[in-house]
Design brief:
This protein has 7 helices and 2 strands. With about 170 residues, it is mainly α. The chain has 2 domains: about 80 residues; about 90 residues, no CATH class. The chain has a two-stranded antiparallel ribbon. The protein is flat and about 55 Å long.
């Protein structure tokens, strides 16, 4: 597959997913709810709208051959890059499966440690710092600031002391 073909397929796939997400989000309230703020479907709807707009711009630029990628006849994925792509895809699949089993935060710790240290070959110091800082920031954003609980599975009891502090 050429880079040009890959760009086209990705733009079409993203555009179709955007439309599907917008339709699904519109099942919820996407406007302003008096006294509460944006409805439950507002953020997904408008983020999907932005993704649709970006996909349409990419398709327009592809059709006009305005970018080096849209003109490229080179192979999209070189044979020596395939193992790295496979390992990355496997790590993401592990993250998804582990989220169901041990919750998003524990799964994210395992994923980040593996990816930063063993794939990215970063130092232990940086890998450990980011491995614990990123989930902590995500927790603060979703659970504390936005009041959106993320799945914790069997690790939920570990969060009870934190809940007592923030709620």
């Amino acid at each position: 597959m050429t880079t040009r073909t890959a760009e086209l397929l990705m733009a079409v796939a993203c555009a179709l997913l955007s439309v599907a997400f917008m339709v699904k989000s519109a099942e919820l309230h996407i406007g302003w709810v008096e006294g509460r703020g944006p409805g439950a479907g507002a953020w997904p709807f408008w983020l999907s709208g932005g993704m649709l707009a970006a996909s349409l711009v990419t398709l327009w630029r592809w059709w006009r051959r305005a970018t080096p990628e849209s003109r490229s006849r080179k192979s999209y994925l070189a044979r020596d890059q395939a193992p790295a792509v496979g390992i990355s895809a496997g790590a993401i699949l592990f993250l998804l499966a582990a989220t169901h089993l041990v919750g998003i935060y524990a799964a994210l710790v395992l994923f980040l440690l593996f990816y930063l240290r063993f794939i990215g070959r970063h130092s232990w110091q940086l890998s450990l710092a980011l491995t614990f800082a990123v989930p902590a920031l995500i927790f603060c954003l979703f659970e504390w600031a936005l009041k959106i609980p993320l799945p914790k599975s069997i690790t939920e009891p570990l969060f009870y002391p934190v809940y007592e502090l923030i709620y």
